[in-house]
Specification:
With about 350 residues, this protein is α/β, with parallel strands linked by helices. It has ten helices and 15 strands. It starts with 11 loop residues before the first strand and ends in a 13-residue tail after the last helix.
């Protein structure tokens, strides 16, 4: 799976300094963050040795750490639940860091003195998060982002996390996958994002991969979920009839033709440099075949194959929604030490 990093978006953590023995406490610096409920400001409290600080009832513990001059140490944690937050900035506090970084504050008396200072959240151990661009499935049909991502519960579940995302309708009648890629690039640029993690579903995978080929600087990571199989007779026949009727001249071949994925040749996919999560259709079907995912694993430079699920248009998806959303949250985390892990041995 993905390397998991604790985030304040999901857990509220308070280090229990009292769990250390007096000998362990001696010489250790510690710091704790708390939220002043009256002002909604984050207050940094730190000290040297001794027990936990005496916080007033107006301060809600948020997170903390302790360490010494030689090495970082991590204590036991007491984990509670944090209220949901909606569409927060793409930079949040990180609990786990490899380097020691203390908050400003003066220790006036070794062992017991505590001093509080007000700090901005953006100054505290930042985790950088990629925005997510959700690309729904469908091709020349009535599928919308609301029907695919919202009705299935994906975007409501994302609203319970500190994550920035966009889920917009794809073009109704594109002439090519380059048209679709241009539409995705416009969304990224209109939001002022330098890069995004592109989360594509079914035929939307063609748009995402075309974006990665034509505008690689905009694509930090890819999620290819339930990728649509190219060259499947029934699916191609239906798509060609629909595009011939509704699309511009030349659109049919441009959109339906392809090797493993519609609109791309395999050598283009093999040159994509982004970390890519593959989320197959379980069970597979004629439109989303397991062989397509297997071929993509062999083509891509840095693939990560996940367990998969039915797609969001399937009523069975609800049982898998939480695991799918958890994967998206992990994909969004972009920290110096945080990389996608390879497939399990």
């Amino acid at each position: 799976g993905l390397h998991r990093r604790t985030s304040t978006s999901e857990r509220q953590v308070d280090f229990i300094v009292d769990s250390l023995s007096p000998r362990q406490r001696c010489g250790h610096q510690w710091s704790m963050l708390s939220r002043d409920e009256a002002t909604n400001q984050v207050v940094a409290v730190e000290g040297l040795g001794g027990g936990r600080p005496d916080l007033s009832e107006d301060h809600e513990p948020l997170l903390g750490s302790f360490g010494n001059a030689e090495e970082e140490e991590v204590g036991k944690t007491q984990i509670g639940k944090q209220p949901p937050r909606r569409h927060q900035p793409a930079q949040v506090c990180s609990l786990i860091r490899t380097e020691r970084r203390m908050l400003p504050g003066k220790i006036t008396e070794a062992g017991h003195a505590v001093e509080s200072t007000v700090a901005e959240v953006s100054d505290l151990l930042p985790i950088k998060r990629l925005p997510l661009l959700l690309v729904h499935g469908g091709l020349y049909d009535d599928m919308t982002a609301v029907e695919f991502w919202t009705a299935s519960g994906v975007t409501p579940a994302l609203d319970n996390h500190i994550v920035t995302y966009a889920a917009q309708d794809r073009p109704d009648a594109p002439a090519s996958w380059s048209d679709e890629a241009s539409a995705l690039a416009e969304i990224i640029e209109a939001n002022g994002w330098e890069q995004a993690a592109i989360v594509a579903a079914s035929n939307g995978c063609s748009a995402a991969l075309r974006l990665a080929v034509e505008r690689p600087e905009l694509v930090a990571r890819l999620v290819l979920a339930w990728p649509a199989t190219a060259g499947e007779l029934v699916s191609d026949t239906l798509a060609r009839a629909q595009i011939d009727e509704l699309g511009p001249d030349g659109a049919t071949d441009a959109l339906v033709s392809g090797e493993t994925i519609r609109g791309l040749i395999d050598s283009e996919i093999a040159n994509i440099d982004a970390d890519t999560v593959l989320w197959p259709s379980i069970p597979e079907n004629q439109f989303h075949q397991a062989a397509t995912v297997t071929t993509l694993v062999g083509l891509l430079r840095r693939p990560l194959l996940m367990a998969g699920s039915p797609d969001p248009t399937n009523k069975s998806f609800g049982a898998f929604r939480d695991s799918f959303v958890s994967m998206l949250i992990e994909v969004s985390i972009l920290d110096a030490d945080d990389q996608l892990a390879g497939p399990a041995e």
